[in-house]
Structure formats: structure tokens, C-alpha cells
Specification:
mainly alpha
């Protein structure tokens, strides 16, 4: 039984998450800020459902359809884990935090920044005049790249046929994401922008796409630990010696840019980033410990 759980932990976590989401959807129907948010969610869900149904039906007659269906089941758990973030907002997960009586830790995080760095790090960017213009646009691009990094990493190993590394990276990212969501519930932190008078609106906030996504899907307490920091570096850490040099250079560059963007765009405290870096080694150890020895790279 234990060996089965270790071998199929990704699928078990995915199934449990989907079951909880289904229950919460019935008990607490999702609330969208705009009609466009509801329309987007319906299009995504119906498209995914139709795709799986078509592949299931076609797999009886087509070897190619069976291969595509196999890809969906292999790639699906990481997609669910990444997209699952939006369920925190839509299903009102903040109500769980409120029922537990846990207050926001933003002031404590700001105090930790001051104690460690002398001031919260984004103030350095303001001092250097890097909080607007081209730099802000570049940082916004890196920040928006984050949700694609887990999909690209897992997709690369699946495409290369490296089953052991695929299993390891997928396991680490899935554990990181779901564990991170639990931390959001138990350690609610909104980020520097939540403290009145600390900063003006950023370039990222002024963009139409981000404004739409934030108003409909972004969860209010999504800062500690910084998964924007943790997951790109988790990919880098687990991919050492496993990918071509040019790809590792690209992954490191992406990790640096995404991490820097969390501070430059005033969305995370410095302590969030430090926690994200520590998270890398914790999750890597958990992923290796939970995989059967024959599946380890």
C-alpha cells in the first residue's frame, strides 16, 4: 500500500484536490468579479472536458489517440496543480483562514525585512529609479513567465523520454504547489502593496491583462513562501547535469529574472524570497524521499 502511494502520489494528490474542489464548488459556488472571468473559466473547463472525452472515445480505434490520451494523463497533474491556484480565490479559501482566526502577517514580514535588510528590498529599486519605465516592463514579463516554467520543465523531460527525471521534477513541483497553497491558508501574507501608503501602483498593475486576472483570479494571501522564487529554482536545482548547457543557462536566467521581479514589482517581501529559496531544498528532499528508488534519477 505504501509503495503504491509513493508511486502514484502525484495522481492521488491531483484526485484529492479535484475532489475537494468539487465539494467546495457545491458548498461555496465560485464568485467572479466580472462576467469575463466567468466566461473564461467556462471556456477553459469545457474545452478540457471535451478534449478528454474525444480522446477517450477515439482511443478505442486509434493508436495516435491512445498516445495523446497517455500524454494528457501524464501531463495533466502538473497542469491541474498550476491552474489549481485560482481555486483559492474562486472558492473563497480566505474564509478558512478567517475561521481559524489567523490574522495577516504583513506587518511582521515588513518588520523582518527591516531587521534583515535595513529596509524592505523594493525600496532600493525605488531609490535607484527602477520602479517604472523599461525595467518595470521587463520585470513584468519575467513575472508573467512564472506559471509556464513548471509546464515547460515537465514538458521537456516528457518530450525527451527521460522518465526518471520527469517523475522527479513533476513530483517536486506538485508537492511544492499544493504545500505552498496550504501555507497561503495558514500564513496569510498579502505583500507590500497591502500596506497603505507604502507605494504607488506599479506598471504591472496598470496593464489590462493583469488587472483582469487580479480582479478575477488572484488570491489575496499568496506571498509566503514565494513560489515565484521557489519553483523556478527548484527546476534548476533538480536539472543540474540533466539538460544541455544552453537550456540550463536559460533556466538560470529565467530564475534570476522571476526572483528579481517579485521584489522589483513590489509584490513580495524579501523574507518571502528567502523562504522561497529555503523551500527549494526542503521540497527537493521530500520529492526524492517519496519516490520509489527505481524512479529516482
Amino acid at each position: 500500500m505504501l509503495d503504491f502511494a509513493r508511486s502514484y502520489l502525484d495522481e492521488l494528490l491531483t484526485g484529492l484536490f479535484l475532489l475537494l474542489a468539487a465539494v467546495f464548488t457545491i458548498v461555496h459556488p465560485p464568485l467572479f468579479a466580472t462576467h469575463g472571468g466567468l466566461l473564461l473559466a467556462r471556456i477553459v473547463l469545457w474545452s478540457a472536458a471535451i478534449l478528454v472525452c474525444v480522446l477517450l472515445a477515439a482511443s478505442r480505434y486509434s493508436l495516435r489517440a491512445r498516445s495523446a490520451l497517455h500524454f494528457v494523463f501524464e501531463f495533466g497533474p502538473i497542469v491541474v496543480a498550476v491552474v489549481g491556484y485560482v481555486s483559492l480565490r474562486l472558492l473563497g479559501a480566505s474564509a478558512i483562514t478567517a475561521r481559524l482566526g489567523i490574522p495577516s502577517f504583513d506587518r511582521e514580514m515588513m518588520a523582518a525585512d527591516v531587521a534583515i535588510f535595513g529596509k524592505t528590498p523594493y525600496l532600493w529599486f525605488m531609490r535607484w529609479g527602477l520602479d517604472s519605465g523599461l525595467f518595470a516592463r521587463v520585470m513584468s514579463g519575467f513575472y508573467a513567465l512564472y506559471p509556464f516554467t513548471p509546464l515547460l520543465a515537465v514538458g521537456w523531460y516528457l518530450w525527451q523520454g527521460d522518465r526518471k527525471q520527469f517523475r522527479l521534477v513533476r513530483r517536486a513541483l506538485i508537492v511544492s504547489l499544493y504545500s505552498g497553497y496550504v501555507c497561503y491558508l495558514l500564513i496569510p501574507v498579502s505583500g507590500p502593496l497591502s500596506l497603505a501608503g507604502t507605494t504607488a501602483s506599479t506598471f504591472l498593475e496598470s496593464t489590462r491583462v493583469y488587472s483582469f486576472l487580479e480582479s478575477n483570479f488572484r488570491y489575496v494571501y499568496d506571498c509566503f513562501p514565494s513560489l515565484h522564487t521557489a519553483n523556478p529554482w527548484l527546476i534548476v536545482w533538480l536539472s543540474r547535469g540533466k539538460v544541455p548547457g544552453w537550456l540550463m543557462a536559460a533556466a538560470v536566467s529565467a530564475g534570476c529574472g522571476i526572483t528579481l521581479s517579485t521584489i522589483a514589482l513590489q509584490l513580495h517581501y524579501g523574507i518571502d524570497v528567502l523562504a522561497g529559496l529555503a523551500w527549494v531544498f526542503l521540497i527537493a528532499a521530500v520529492a526524492k524521499a517519496t519516490l520509489p528508488s527505481e524512479q529516482l534519477a
